[in-house]
Please model this.
Amino acid sequence: METTKLPRARFNAKRPGSLVGNITAVLEYLSLLYAKTAPDADSPHETCTTCKGTGTIAGDIDPGSMIAPELSLQRGSVLLWAGTDCKPVAKIKALAAMIGIDFERPLDEQDKRFADILLYGYDAEPVSYVHKGKSFKSHYRGCAFDLQFMRDAGTASKGNLRAIAFFSTKAQCPACNGNEPKLERQAAALMGRSLQELWRLPVAELLRFVRQLPASPDDNARMITSEIAAEIESILTYLQKIGLKTLLRESQHVRPIHLGQIVPASPDVVAAARGM
Ligand SMILES: [Zn+2]
Model:
């Protein structure tokens, strides 16, 4: 039997890396699972080049998806930077100390205004912080503006592009009108659930689902499936451990950002946009 080449580097619980990277990996692996196990998986079709078969394109940035309030700052409530050692991580830690956000307590147990500050910035005074032995002092602009800046700067980094797609609203693809065979496969049921349903399950429930996946009757598909399922399981186990409740979230703080409303980005964001 041939070995499956997973589309991403294997998850390593000792070095989990970017939280957004791990969440999007689970979403992608679940799609792959549906693609591999659907009866018509091998039927030839041309994939739409505009949407790459997803049927959707990224719309405006959706700030409501950028904060996980069930997590503390330490665990990664600012999803954009969680798990990285970018400058904004050091800056957010210093900002928290400055305005009284408890770094180790979940955000939803604290002043609700903190989430807005983390999203949209803090104008009252600049933040002094240290990153990799160097001192910096600048205003905290907010992760929603950071992401908008990365998007406007035309970032080419795969990780950044994944983050931008993940935190943006989805619009129907104008090239194929969302008319993709792939979408039909996603709507097919695996143990009674469509892919869209799985994406919205609480992490704990999704983990139970993945652990119960029955083996496919086809040998090759079974091997591919079990390998993907094992990878999903190890990432989900980690996400559950840190306390993440859902992969996707309802937008609680929606305030769409439009062009012209953007403040000049601080140098640390410029550096991050050039490749995290
Ligand atoms: Zn398309």
In short: The pocket of zinc ion is lined by residues 48, 50-51, 55, 173, 175-176 (CB under 6 Å). Residues 30 and 102 are 35 Å apart (CA to CA).
